[in-house]
Amino acid sequence: MAYNTIDTHSNIYNYYMTTYAPKSSTPYDTHKKSELRNVYNSIVKMNKEAPIYILDTSRESCRFAVGMKENARELRNTIASLGDLNENDMLNKKAAYSSNENIASASYIGTAMDSVSPSPVEIEVRSLATTQVNMGNYLPGTEKVELSPATYSFDIGIDDLNYEFQFSIKSEDTNRDVQDRLSRLINNANIGISAQVVMNDEHNSALRLESNATGLKDNKSDIFVVSDHRTSKTAGTVEYLGLDNIAVSASNANFLLNGEERTSPSNSLNVGRIYQVNLNGVSSEEGETASIGLKTDVESLTENINTLVKGYNSFLNAASEYSDRHPKSNRIVHEVGNISRYYARGLTSAGLNLNLDGTLEVDNEAIQKTAMSGDTKRAFSSIMDFTKSLVRKSNQISLDPMNYVNNTVVAYKNPGKNFATPYITSAYSGMMFNSYC
Known about the structure:
Layout: E1 2-3, H1 8-19, H2 33-48, E2 52-54, H3 59-80, E3 96-98, E4 104-108, E5 121-127, E6 133-135, E7 139-140, E8 150-158, E9 161-169, H4 175-189, E10 193-199, E11 204-211, E12 224-227, H5 237-241, E13 246-248, E14 253-257, E15 260-264, E16 268-271, E17 275-279, E18 290-294, H6 297-320, H7 329-342, H8 344-350, E19 352-354, E20 360-362, H9 364-371, H10 376-379, H11 381-399, E21 408-411
Antiparallel strand pairs: 1-9, 2-21, 3-18, 4-17, 5-14, 5-18, 6-11, 6-13, 7-11, 8-9, 8-12, 10-11, 14-15, 16-17, 19-20
């Protein structure tokens, strides 16, 4: 087994995120005290008159409740990323362009309220940031391992943390058995290193380790170090398997930004807190650059609406996936579908077409024609109202995903004579611990 110094709660959270609904963290997951207070007050108000019921705590219901909460959060964050959640800035986020996607792509990370339009920047990429790769010794996979049966261990140091991996070798184990075992052990530990067993032309196998991160920080010479010099159990596997053999050293990206030479340990750059730039490839010749700038307002609006529709369709499809195993998920599909049907006529006139399954399709030409026709705010009022309704619905689902689980009602409360029960909606929070311990 593997031991590390990270707090157990971090591992539990990682298990929750990767098992139920793997989503990325965004700046919109942070909140002010007033926002958290409003969430709490909403929970109190919602549960004051809620009936008492027996929870369905089956594995499928747990997966459904936590998954739908995360999908609702993702939909809300998608909408928030398109400007803001207030009416004046909603869908007003500016969009960035790149003149050469093969060299670099970009997204705008400024705010919708930024009045000064930034100047375009020129990027020439000389080299990309690379990962560290350790290539083990190639050994005959079917032959018995030349290590005595015992409990072995080795250490991997990465990001100023030290992880110890322990495993046993039996007398009947082959080289391939040990390599496969260590590959699973390292991958399951999720420490930022990917392991795989590779074969050569002679059909011998070796263990290959690659860092997820790129580049070198703080003048370090490597990203991770494998050693068993001071490990707690029997040593010898590092030398035998060649786990410390660095085949490819990590390196930083080297590029010119507006003619000025820069380096970065990552291929993802923050340029002036305005652009998030991803370096995709090396310039084919000296002087070849990618120009990064802002799209026109019409192009930005079109891109924002496309992102909105993509987020809406993704949420609807995620809910539909549970319909066979969790019939009550159809209630979410029906409620969200009713929102789009209510605004269907206005959405169609603005360039969004409603499909029979409730999903939307974007007519970019119609959107751009509508945007250039005159009063943009009035022309897209239906889309704005539709977006605000989606925010309200996503907040409702996030507050109480258990409302959509097949629970059994035990009793209804006496209206007007109840105590607040604000923690009922937290029933799903313990589900992240299920099957972990």
